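Summary for the funding panel

The consortium committed to producing paired sequence-structure records for every protein in the target list. Below we show the first two records in order, beginning with the earlier of the two.
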Amino acid sequence: MINSSALGAAANTDAGSRLFRYEVVGLRQNSETDKASYPIRRSGNTFITVPYDRMNEAMQRITRLGGRIVSIQPVDTLNGKNGNVPVEQKSSSPTLETGQSATRPAEESKPMTQAKEAAAIPVNIYRPNAPFVAKVISNEPLVQEGGIGICQHVKFDLSGGDLRYLEGQSIGVIPPGVDKNGKPEKLRLYSIASTRHGDDLNDKTVSLCVRQLEYKHPETGETVYGVCSTHICNLKPGDEVKVTGPTGKEMLLPNDEDATIIMLATGTGIAPFRAFLWRMFKDGERSLNPEYQFKGLAWLVFGIATSPNILYKQELEELQAKYPDNFRLTYAISREQQNPEGGRMYIQHRVAEHAEEMWELMQKPNTHTYMCGLKGMEDGIDEALSAVASKNGVDWKEFQRSMKRAGRWHVETY
């Protein structure tokens, strides 16, 4: 049997001494009994504590002994050490528009997806009853000529306030005016598209990627525009906006410089991943973050309708050209590319195309998978990954749950 106490020996560094607990099934008793011509009893569930810097070694040994890892969880999470982190509170029933992230109720018993060791996660510094009034610095179109709809990159000035945030969080915007019932408009949540230092790298700005919501009224056929998204898309430099937050802990980026980060985005779901990629690869960001110099693999699969709708296209392709070994970019352009069946190419078809490789990457304990965008993407992606998991003798839903428990599966859809 594998010696769990030996694997849990102290490591030489603070980072390396972080402990993780593997839940393993199917271990053989030893290599000699495995050679026997008669059936050998295998173990039930075994729990093995492993320091971070020996996780790969432990995984290899477990595999050699015929074991299967059911789940991986940080020991800190199991011990409840994150309980002192501020819990986000759900504000007064915010509604959702295109480009926004979903709000979740406060869950005091649920561990944080990514505990920030250096500092607590900032949450709800500004609330709806006392918002921060930010000024618009710039409002730039992201959809190129010939594209569909309106989508803007809007940068706000945070000078004079105390709004701090991390990559993967959201802020609320309260549009002016009243709703159809004569009550003040409720806030809408939008995923932040900039790093904690802001686009100007001076800690004084926050940026959003917002698409104007537009749809046909089901009864009248009249074109309806989203209240808040239209307001934001039409803002001019110097305009004032009521901002709340930040909120969110589900989509935070791990501190591990060697991690594998798989990002699955549709449309404005690119927002948090732009923040991730800037933090990983932009020269200015790297100089500001000597403690975080990304050396792993970032893989973005981006679903969009047409080539002119590829948001941040120039930025993405420049990063890919500069870091070809660390950043992989895959497009699914639905109205221009075909899937193997001859229909439109959606993000789930790209995931299915690369499912074997993604599955292999997901077996690594420091691979995180993120999904952000339209909720409709989830079922197709689950189907694609379920097929490859089944091929490898694993139940996808069970494996997905183990990734969630380990804080390695992150979803924010709307």
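The next record, for a separate protein in the list, is shown here:
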Amino acid sequence: MTCLKPEAAAPSETGPNGADFNPFAVMQPRRPDAIPQDFRNGGRVKAADVAPAGVYLPNNNKMTPAMRSPDYVQMSTAAAITLGIMPGMLYRCACTRCLNLLLTYPEGCRANCAYCGLARHREAERDYADRNFIRVDWPAVPMAEIVEKVAADGEDTPFHRMCISMITHPRSDDDTVTVLKQWTDRIDPATVPVSILSNPTTMQRVDVETLKGLGADIFTVALDAATPEIFDRTRGKGVDSPHSWKKYWDILMDARDIFGPQKFGAHIIVGMGETEADVLHLVQQLVDLGGHSHMFCFFPEKGSLMDHLPATPRDQWRRVQLARYLIDYCDVRVERMAFDGEGRVTDFGLPQGELDAIVDAGIAFRTSGCPGKFQEDISACDRPYGDSPPSNIASYPFQPAGADVRRIRHQLDMEKPGEAYEPGEEFDDPDDGPDDDAPQDRAAAAAGAP
């Protein structure tokens, strides 16, 4: 059984000093330490010179094999469980609907993003294939084996989408093309559409054109930071990392031109020191360009330069989730919303009755990402528990109902008379659907991709 260990403490409902948001001044990453020369660029792996042999399960092998893309890719634990690569269960989910694939190299990602478990600064601590990413391990699997398994399922595949996640590496652009072509040669993109989670730092416009020409359906850019200042201190010069806000926006604009309306988007992490107004004006900007936002709740990733910082308070997260959904799918403009002096949403720009109906529907609080086959506002990329433990769900990978909605309303300070939320009730509420009857932190959970 593959599972997540119980958290020592669930994310707080509030931020530092009881605040209901994470202020900029608090969310300062540590500076990365110097890496010994022998550990740089996958030095230990290369010195061991161990040939890859089939599926590699992180931490289960004594030595990391010298695996590299395009022959190998890593996949999320949730995808590996769904594909039958690993045993396990997903808490209140039958499977994941997105096959998230991550390029992999012994040298690892050459960027140093402060919130990421794959960051370069971990070279002295863990070999690349053993590093956690959005809360779980990522087994490495031969690409040919993945294609064979999915092709054999044909129209019966559980996956609504496949996503190739690039990393910062000299071979990432060429290998993404090879992995995409290997997929589309066997699997019709009409059956399983393909998304690209890009690495703008190494890309040019022609690379975006090539991926579109080979059958990629959606192109996304992980801005992650909502402002240039936060981008620089978490992804750029502030942490000795090569990324720049301008280059990310240049490639995002190329994607808008090449992929077209509703076929490009940006990832945004909420709770890294921006205000709610910052995030939601960015969401509106993306909508006005013809794209979408894919939202993540900040969680202190173990081993990252921000692992000592607080997770996003749930009330901040719920306000942004709801407002983002209204902008993306309900034609509510950010200009209709109101914000207080701290940039918090105080008015969502809708009459209370209409707002209540959207909250009760629950879709606004599901994981956001590239669409699946159910409907446009339900993401294929459900990333089960990638930004929270099951005990305090941030992005719901299933349809919230019953006590889930009551808890959401409690976090939004929108409880209905006579329907107050009782802590823990969602774990044994029969209205909540296919619940596991185990204790809340028992490990029937696995995380998905970015």
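Regarding this second record: Residues 314-329 form the longest helix (16 residues). The domain at 16-398 is CATH 3.20.20.70 (TIM Barrel).
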